[in-house]
Design goal:
Blueprint (H helix, E strand, L loop, with lengths): L2 H31 L3 H4 L5 H37 L2 H7 L5 H42 L1 H5 L5 E5 L2 E8 L4 E9 L6 E12 L4 E12 L5 E12 L19 H5 L6 H5 L2 H13 L2 H13 L12 H22 L6 H22 L7 H24 L4
Antiparallel strand pairs: 1-2, 2-3, 3-4, 4-5, 5-6
Helix pairs in contact: 1-3, 1-5, 3-5, 3-10, 3-11, 5-10, 9-12, 10-11, 10-12, 11-12
């Protein structure tokens, strides 16, 4: 690799990191805060939350990495064009490969890195996250017995305990169950206890208020009542794993008794094809960025900013692949489309780079656009002259 190629590689990599780290930090923080209820609802420590947030990070990297690379390439080459560096390279007889080679090598390395994260690291951390959440749910009963605080056990289910005496006896128990909108239930009990064996809250000397759909309320007194919390307190071993949480070897040979496999076998094949496609995105985005910004252009030549241009193309491309991958869970006809979109994009980008042509708007549309701009300028000038005070 020549000195000039190393120079371009270093600048692109620095700009890539400058684009990657802030965006990665914002998305990571957003994803982590969505799971803050692990601390607030289940009584886990802040250390458990930080561990969970760390495990989320590898799941975010493959999503952000291709966009950061495209931004790094367009910003670097746009700056080099503004500083006339691309013009000097072209005037000195340097081939376009001087620019293409280091960037494509970086893109290939990031694609391999993305494949490793997507197929090796991410499934393991996803499984660890599932296990942590299941373990937190298993410890939910210990958080329920905290005094004088409402605890959300599940959507529409809240528990409050007024106090706690020796031998695990709870006093002043209140349970509000609105999971079934047709029959809202409110439980009051003077005392009770947690039965760890059956994962149930056993209440004594209380009453149940049941609200009917017509607005009426019925009251039933009881001496003893066991409220089942088993569904909300699954043990860690019972953590359910989705196709996205599985390793590649398991996706090729799933357990026939797997709940998700029995429900939708196409979701496993869709996940396989998604992973075989998405690891190439750094390379695809790099090609798109090179087509847009690798040629030397005059400062007087009006064009959309390369970063904005490539971001629009990249978002359209990402939406098409995302839609095809999700639709492939319901119909196998979308699997060829999932492969066709990146392959066609790569072919068009390579053709454009080999032909060494600049990416331009067709002449017919360019002339129409220029005519419209001239008309707008004339109208604006006329309005300024008529609106000018005498």
């Amino acid at each position: 690799m020549t000195i000039l190629e190393r120079y371009i590689l270093r600048r692109v990599f620095q700009m890539f990191l400058a684009a990657l780290l802030p965006v990665l930090g914002i998305i990571w923080t957003t994803q982590a805060l969505q799971r803050i209820n692990l601390v607030t609802d289940t009584g886990q420590s802040i250390g458990a939350f930080l561990q969970l947030a760390t495990l989320i990070l590898p799941t975010v990297i493959p999503l952000v990495l291709p966009f950061a690379l495209a931004i790094g390439i367009t910003q670097t080459l746009g700056t080099m064009n503004t500083d006339s560096e691309l013009t000097v390279i072209e005037a000195a007889g340097g081939s376009r490969s001087i620019i293409l080679r280091p960037i494509l090598l970086l893109a290939a390395a990031l694609s391999v890195f993305s494949f490793t994260v997507d197929n090796v690291v991410e499934p393991k951390v996803r499984q660890a996250v599932r296990q942590m959440i299941a373990s937190a749910n298993a410890d939910l009963l210990s958080s329920v017995v905290q005094e004088n605080s409402f605890r959300r056990i599940a959507d529409g289910l809240y528990v409050q305990v007024g106090g706690r005496r020796g031998n695990g006896v709870l006093t002043g128990i209140f349970v509000a169950d609105s999971r079934n909108p047709e029959s809202e239930l409110v439980y009051y009990a003077r005392e009770g206890a947690v039965d760890e064996a059956s994962s149930a809250l056993v209440m004594k000397d209380g009453e149940v208020h049941r609200k009917q759909p017509d607005g009426g309320v019925s009251i039933i007194k009881f001496d003893s009542y066991a409220f089942d919390l088993a569904e909300m307190t699954k043990k860690a071993a019972g953590a359910s794993l989705k196709p996205g949480d599985r390793e590649l070897s398991y996706l090729f040979n799933p357990d026939p008794n797997d709940e998700f496999y029995q429900r939708n076998p196409l979701s496993f094949s869709s996940e396989i094809h998604r992973r075989f496609v998405e690891w190439t995105f750094p390379l695809v985005f790099a090609l798109m960025a090179l087509v847009v910004s690798s040629d030397a252009r005059s400062h007087r030549e009006a064009r959309m900013h390369p970063t904005l241009q490539v971001m629009i193309i990249a978002f359209v491309f990402r939406w098409m692949t995302f839609y095809a991958a999700n639709s492939a869970e319901d119909s196998a006809i979308f699997i060829p489309i999932l492969y066709a979109v990146p392959l066609l994009t790569i072919a068009l980008c390579i053709r454009q780079l080999i032909s060494n042509k600049k990416l331009r708007i067709p002449a017919r549309y360019s002339d129409q656009l220029n005519d419209q701009l001239i008309r707008l300028k004339v109208i604006s000038t006329a309005d300024d002259e008529t609106g000018r005070p005498s």
